[in-house]
Structures are given as C-alpha cells and as structure tokens.
Amino acid sequence: MKILAIESSCDETSAAVVEKRTVLSNIIATQIEEHRIYGGVVPEIASRRHTEAISRVCDLAVEEAGIKYTDIDAVAVTFAPGLIGSLLVGVNFAKGLSAALEVPLIPVHHLRSHIAANYLVHKELEPEFLCLLVSGGNTVIAEVTDYTKFKILGQTNDDAAGECFDKTARCMGLSYPGGVMLDKIATISDTQKYPLPFPKCSKEYDFSFSGLKTAVINTVHNAGQKGEEIDIPVLCATVRQRVCDMLITNTIKAAEDYGYRKIAVAGGVSANSELRKRMVEECRNKGFSLYFPPLEYCSDNAAMVGAQGYYEYLSGNTADFSLNAVATLDINYD
Ligand code: KG4
Predict the structure, then answer these.
(1) Beta carbons of 140 and 152 less than 8 angstroms apart
(2) What is the pLDDT of residue 139?
(3) Measured in angstroms, how far is the CA atom of residue 135 from the centroid of ligand 1?
(4) Quick check: 302 and 7 in contact, CB under 8 A?
(5) Cβ atoms within 10 A of the Cβ of 309, count?
(6) Ligand 1 centre from 270 Cα, in Å?
(7) Cα(301)–Cα(7) distance, rounded to whole angstroms?
(8) CA 200: distance to chain centroid?
(9) 72, 159, 189 from 213: Cα distances, Å
(10) Is it true that the peptide bond before 281 is cis, omega within 30 degrees of 0?
(11) Fold of 126-292
(12) Torsion angle of C-alpha atoms 132, 137, 10, 179, degrees rounded to 10
C-alpha cells in the first residue's frame, strides 16, 4: 500500500511516499532561514510559504519514489496539532488529492507521527513500549499500548523542553532554532559556574521547565547589568544538563515502575547529543532496549506521517471531506 503523506504543521512543507514502514521518498522544504530573521516562526509567513511550496513538494515526492500519482493508494495528512493556518494548507491539499485520485484520506496526529518516526528504521519495534516525546511544543512520557492507543504518564506543566532550549538560547543571542545551536556550542568546563535550579514537580513523571528558563534569563540580564561577560558555551551546557537530567530521570523511573523494557525517544529534541548519549548509557546499564529516530527523522517530515498513516488506516481511522485542521488536540483524541 503506497501512501502519499503530507506534513505542514509548522515551518516545514514535506511530502513523502511510504509503503508500510519503507520510505520511497521524503521531500522537505524548510522555511528556517526566513523565520530566523524574526527569531521564531511567524505563522502568517509560514502559511504563505506552505501554499507556495506544497504542490511542487508533492510532485517531487511522487517523482523521486519512481511512481505516478495514479499508483497512490491513500493520502495521509497531519491535521493536528500545530499552527492552524499551516495545517489548513496541508489538509486542504490532501483533501483535493484524495478526491481527485479517489483514494482514502487518512488524518494523522502530529505527535503520533513523531513516535512513528521510529518505525521507519527500527523494523522490529512494535507496541507496547514507553516513549519520551520531546519537541518544540510538547514534552510527554506516554505508554504506546498499540499503534493508535496511548496513555500519558507524565507531561510538562508549563514549557516544552524544546521551547526551554529555544528561549534560553535566544536570550544568549543564539539564532533560531536555538536548541540546535545551544547543543552545538555547549561545552562543560565548570559545572558550578552557573548554579541553575534542578526543576522538580509534585506529580511523578511530570516536567517543569519555566523556572529553569527564567533562571537563565535572569543570569544573562544580571550579568549584562553588571557589565560581566557570560561564558555562553558553559551556560548552554548547564541548561542542556538540567533539561536532560529531568527527561532521563523521569523516563527511566516510569519504565521501571511500569515494567517497560523498550523505550523510544521521539520529536525534534531527540536530536540532542547529550540526551542521546546519556540515554544510551542509562539503558545499557538497566538492560533496556532503546530506540531513537536517525537525525533526518527527528524534526518534522512527512515520512513519519506516512508510517503512522498506515497504522491509522489499519485501525479504520479515515476521514471524509469534512476533515478540518485542529490547532490543539490530545494524542488520544477519539
Ligand atoms: O519536533 P520538532 O521539529 O517540532 C515540533 O513538532 O515542535 O521540534 C523542534 C524543536 C525545537 O525546539 C528545536 O530547537 C529542538 O526541537 N531541537 C533541539 C535539537 N534539534 C532540534 N533541541 C536540542 N538539541 C538539539 N540538537
């Protein structure tokens, strides 16, 4: 079954052709350079660029897969959550394609597709497993009890991990998307230099990153007022360490408490080098199997939408032409 998948939830216009878990093509037109000027995604610009790119991106995906539009068996599309104007471009284009080709339309939840990025490369990975889902907008520990069934064990009470990285990086003068740059330049030489807090939550497995974010902003402002220079690589490394401490501690604890021996990590922040390194060490020590997507599938892409779309289709989750984009939606929406 060949699925043409479309992703346009934020600032990447992507289309892919996926056959079950095999990627035949995956085209991504990124808008990062344009949004960098503004220090973050400008929703109106994002929607316009999606509109301009989507037709060509789909053509390229079909061409690179070595097939014709008439070979496509279904169209999958990210319909939630995300920027509403951006989502609408993908959803409406997918509706048009599905009508023209007379094939099923499969709505895909963005967070479910991030988890499915792991299926593209770890062919043996099947539910049940535990997933740490860390992106720009979400930080969640979820039990993946089936391909389309999830149980949230923990989540952020305020900012997402990616947002914490992006905002702290911005206040240190690093360019958008800050998480990527922060990870690149982080160098620990003196762990005591910036005594940032270790965030804690009253609810087990939950996260909180806003206090850490505020502490970094205050550190930078105080230094500025006193005319002192900030050691940016050390501050970056301290932030990264604190965020990873919280992500890793909660995930390992949840796996032990709930008896999971398979852990997957997904979402844009799963590209973080310290998170990857330390999770490998922790899971090796505990005897857990660990799954990460390769870097090319960590950030937004349509290949992961195609992988999840396949399982949504098998579960009977197709849509008619009344399908609408939804800005905010729980991962268990049905
Ligand atoms: O999953 P994603 O592409 O978009 C959402 O669906 O939210 O995640 C984007 C987030 C951004 O906050 C970005 O800074 C972060 O992932 N990110 C990283 C790294 N690469 C991307 N954060 C830390 N370290 C990285 N290497």
Answers:
(1) yes
(2) 96
(3) 5
(4) yes
(5) 33
(6) 8
(7) 6
(8) 23
(9) 46, 9, 21
(10) no
(11) Nucleotidyltransferase; domain 5 (3.30.420)
(12) -80
Q: Which of 139, 167, 180, when mutated, tests ligand 1's pocket best, judged by the most ligand atoms within 8 Å of its CB? A: 180
Ligand 1, residue 111: give the atom nearest the CA: 6
Atom 17 of ligand 1, nearest CA residue = 269
- pLDDT tens string for the chain (334 positions)? 999 999 999 999 999 999 999 999 999 999 999 999 998 899 999 999 999 999 999 999 999 999 999 999 999 999 999 999 999 999 999 999 999 999 999 999 999 999 999 999 999 999 999 999 999 889 999 999 999 999 999 999 999 999 999 999 999 999 988 999 999 999 877 667 898 998 888 899 999 999 999 999 999 999 999 999 999 999 999 999 999 999 999 999 999 999 999 999 999 999 999 999 999 999 999 999 999 999 999 999 999 999 999 999 999 999 999 999 999 999 998 7
For the chain, which residues make up each domain, given as ranges?
Answer: 2-116+299-314, 126-292
Assess whether the C-beta atom of 268 lies below 6 angstroms from ligand 1.
yes
Residue 334: what pLDDT?
75
Claim: this prediction has a pTM higher than 0.85: yes
Q: Ligand 1: distance of its center to the CA of 105 in Å?
A: 28
For ligand 1, whether the C-beta of 260 sits within 6 Å is no
- Could you name the CATH architecture of 2-116+299-314? 2-Layer Sandwich (3.30)
Residue 210 tokens, joined:
């806003």
225 Cα to the center of ligand 1, angstroms: 31
In short, whether 269's Cβ falls inside 6 Å of ligand 1 is: yes
Q: Is 293 in the pocket of ligand 1 (CB under 6 A)?
A: no
206 lines ligand 1 (CB under 6 A): no
Same fold, 2-116+299-314 and 126-292: yes
137 Cβ inside 6 Å of ligand 1: yes
Which of these, 11, 78, 80, lies nearest to 40 by C-alpha position?
11
Ligand 1 mutation target, pool 10, 28, 41, 165, most atoms within 8 A of CB? 165
